Amino acid sequence: MPETKKTFVERLFAEHRNALQAFFYRRIKTKHDAADLVQEVYLRILRVKDADAILNPEGYLYTVASNLVHEHYVLSERQPVPFDLDHPLIESELGRPAGFEEWFDMETRVARLRDVLAQLPPKCRATVHLKYQHGLSYQEIAEHLGVSPHMVQKYLGMALAHCRRRMERMR
């Protein structure tokens, strides 16, 4: 009796789960994401309409895994790196007084920063303005903009990453 697709995939999973998890972990460095990507490999194999057409199951398995690593990388590059804006070290750095040399070219840097901020989408720009000009909390900004506090944090992360990249290019 021929093996059903589900049995075929379960056998592949039993034989290669640990190796696939190690494959992902070496490439993306997070165990949680590695486990999720292993599951995604098997979901994608389950969606294959003609499993009998797969001549080299292990090769196919790692081809799908390689594609997922690439997709994971592309998606992670699009998302800002999360960090806690209220962390004491970040707040102290943002509130640190500038030295003489920094004050000297402050007008130029402020003009550059205004240009960079103008490039942001409206809600990102509004979030930065409400946080740093008015000192509002994430919750207050969220209520003002009609978004979630989590979205406010994302907007700030995107805005700060954008500003950091653009200001570095202008040096």
Overall description:
With 171 residues, the chain is mostly helical. The chain folds into two domains: 74 residues, Rna Polymerase Sigma Factor, Chain: A; 82 residues, Orthogonal Bundle (Arc Repressor Mutant, subunit A), CATH 1.10.10. Helix content is 74%, strand content 0%. It has nine helices and no strands. The chain is elongated. The model has no long low-confidence stretch (mean pLDDT 80).
Write a brief caption for the model.
The chain is mostly helical and 171 residues long. The chain has helices at 5-28, 31-46, 57-78, 88-94, 100-104, 106-118, 122-132, 138-145, 149-169.
Main beta-sheet strand count, sense and barrel state: none
CATH topology category name of the largest domain: Arc Repressor Mutant, subunit A
CATH classification class of the largest domain:
Mainly Alpha
- The number of distinct structural domains comes to 2
H/E element sequence: HHHHHHHHH
- Report the β-strand fraction as a percent range: under 5%
Q: What is the CATH architecture assignment of the largest domain? A: Orthogonal Bundle
Work out the number of β strands.
Answer: 0
**Number of helices, where a helix is a run of at least 4 consecutive DSSP H or I residues:** 9
The low-confidence runs, each spanning 5 or more residues with pLDDT under 50, are none
Q: Could you name the CATH homologous superfamily of the largest domain?
A: Winged helix-like DNA-binding domain superfamily/Winged helix DNA-binding domain
Radius of gyration: 24 Å
Alpha-carbon distance between the two ends? 69 Å
Query: How would you classify the helix and strand content by structural class?
Result: mainly alpha
The coarse overall form would be: elongated
**Average pLDDT:** 80
* Helix percentage range: over 70%
